[in-house]
Amino acid sequence: MLFDIARTTIAGRPALTVRGELDLATAPRLAAAAEPLLTGSSDQLVVDLGPTKFLDSSGARTLMALARQARESGAELHVLVPLGNRPVRLPIDLLDLGAAVPVVASTAEIGTAVARKDAGT
User: Fold this and answer.
1) CA distances (Å), 32 to each of 98, 113, 119, in order?
2) What local confidence, expressed as pLDDT, does residue 9 receive?
3) CA-to-CA separations, 63 to 118, 119, 121, in angstroms, rounded
4) Tens digits of per-residue pLDDT, 33-51?
5) Which has the closest alpha carbon to 50: 76, 24, 12, 88?
6) Nearest to 77 by CA among 3, 13, 6
């Protein structure tokens, strides 16, 4: 399956849209694409897994590493996975990845998360 990472903008934030399968072979490409965004001038990043067709444990580990890197650098990370994307939502839910990675189901939740942070909650 074709794999691609496109730099985009979602909810006014820099984003990486991942198409294809996020697995052992492709997860390092996501890490490499995200690293300069998390350590550079941007303090926000959205990883859009909406078009992603598959997520394995390597992809999940990479998302956890990105969340850790974002926390350490003071950046705000959101991983966008629509509820209808069952091939990706299922492993996220089974692994309880949302406990360690800020997973949102829609762009509306990104704005809500920012508003909660600004309000000090």
Assistant:
1) 22, 26, 33
2) 94
3) 24, 26, 24
4) 999 999 876 789 999 999 9
5) 88
6) 13
**Is residue 29 within 8 Å of 61, Cβ to Cβ?**
no
Nearest to 75, CA basis, from 107, 108, 117: 117
Question: For the chain, which residues make up each domain, given as ranges?
Answer: 4-118
pTM over 0.70: yes
Contact 14, 44 (CB under 8 A): yes
How are the residues of the chain apportioned to helix, strand and coil, as percentages rounded to the nearest 5? 45, 25, 30
- The CATH homologous superfamily for domain 4-118 is STAS domain (3.30.750.24)
Token digits for 39? 């350590």
Q: What phi, psi does 21 have (nearest 5°)?
A: -105, 125
